[in-house]
Design brief:
With 355 residues, this protein is an alpha/beta fold. The protein has a single domain, classed as Metal-dependent hydrolases (TIM Barrel, Alpha-Beta Barrel). Helix content is 39%, strand content 14%. An 8-stranded parallel β-sheet has the order 1-2-5-6-9-10-11-12. Helix 5 links the parallel strand 5 and strand 6. Helix 8 packs parallel to helix 10. The two termini are 29 Å apart.
Length: 355
């Protein structure tokens, strides 16, 4: 918690960026971009304890799940996290965020770690995979991507493709899943940002009013279009993955990113850092203390409380007081937590070069 506010990080990943996991060698350039973005661009200037070197960044997956567990619950004010699997199987051998990482943590801390399963319509039997996610992995939602590399070709997965997508949405509802998240707004090489537009979403959103469509990376691009979906459809939510990180070093930019979303759907916005691309802890305080400039939609304390955790809990029907009680009783605790050294699992290992 931070100042008595319950904190949910709505997107965390495994982050398997070692070159041995890359199916496309050129993806190493994306790894370098992610490293410099998270360690040099977003982390607090002058506070090197929140940074790792490049070898540690690329080799640290060998330390999972201990690394992610410590990062989230021992080293930061995050109380609950939602791990999103990544189904980029044409680019990474394991998609880059395999579910087993979170599953191991959830075995010990089911009140702290929840899972969104990875799903691509291009897999051999996506219906059977949905069943596996529900029956074996206990997921509370699924995560999809707009495209992947299939047999060497960049292939789109558009939500308005009724033949490809609608049977999957129908089966999700049949199996009791109520949320599908989709990565938008932030391009991944080798595609440009136009492939991550939201112009394909309205038909699916309208056709499945009992399914919540969670747009991930809201704030980075297409802000007006995403805001229009929030305004028009009550079954749209926006996951702010990495957007809150701009509240620290780029406060004017952050105001611009947030303004259209706050104006139309502040009660359906979710705080998210995207850890472990960056260490999450500095950004919780930065967001909690942020004040929007004059003339912008308000971001008051009640709205921040909702974004930091209550909005996500409401959408998923969580009993927040029960979660708080469980967190209070475990080894990490809740109020007054003494946080351990940032990246302590890496610094206590031989992974990468000495920090």
């Amino acid at each position: 918690m931070i100042d008595d506010v319950f904190v949910v990080d709505a997107t965390v990943h495994g982050g398997h960026f070692h070159r041995d996991n890359l199916l496309i060698p050129q993806l190493e350039e994306l790894t370098k971009l992610l490293y410099h973005w998270g360690n040099g661009h977003l982390q607090p200037f002058g506070f090197d304890e929140y940074k790792v070197n490049y070898d540690q960044f690329t080799e640290r997956f060998a330390l999972q799940p201990a690394l992610l567990e410590s990062l989230l619950f021992a080293e930061s004010d995050i109380d609950v996290a939602v791990y999103q699997g990544v189904p980029l199987y044409g680019m990474y051998k394991d998609g880059s965020s395999p579910l087993w990482v979170a599953a191991e943590i959830a075995k010990r801390f089911p009140h702290r770690m929840f899972l969104y399963g990875d799903l691509t319509p291009r897999m051999s039997d996506p219906i059977a995979h949905i069943d596996h996610l529900v029956d074996d992995m206990n997921v509370i939602g699924v995560k999809m991507y707009p495209l992947d590399m299939v047999e060497g070709r960049l292939t789109e997965n558009r939500f308005d493709d009724e033949k490809l997508m609608f049977p999957l949405f129908e089966h999700m509802l049949k199996r009791g899943l109520k949320v599908v998240a989709v990565h938008k707004a932030v391009p991944l090489a080798p595609a440009l940002v136009d492939r991550y537009h939201v112009d394909d979403m309205a038909p699916a959103i309208a056709a499945f009013p009992d399914l919540t469509f969670e747009i991930v990376h809201g704030g980075f691009a297409f802000g007006q279009e995403i805001a229009a979906l929030l305004d028009r459809y009550p079954n749209v939510t926006v996951n702010l993955e990495s957007t809150p990180c701009y509240a620290l070093n780029f406060q004017d930019k952050f105001a611009e990113m947030m303004a259209p979303l706050l104006a139309t759907g502040a009660d359906r916005l979710f705080f998210s850092t995207g850890a472990p691309i960056m260490h999450p802890d500095p950004f919780i305080r930065a967001f909690k203390d942020y004040r929007m400039p004059a003339g912008y939609p308000p971001l008051d304390d009640a709205t921040k409380r909702g974004i930091l955790g209550d909005n996500f809990a409401r959408v998923h029907g969580w009993d927040v007081e029960a979660l708080k009680a469980a967190c209070r009783a475990d080894q990490f605790g809740l109020e007054g937590k003494t946080k351990t050294t940032p990246w302590s699992v890496i610094r206590n290992s031989v992974v990468g070069e000495a920090a």
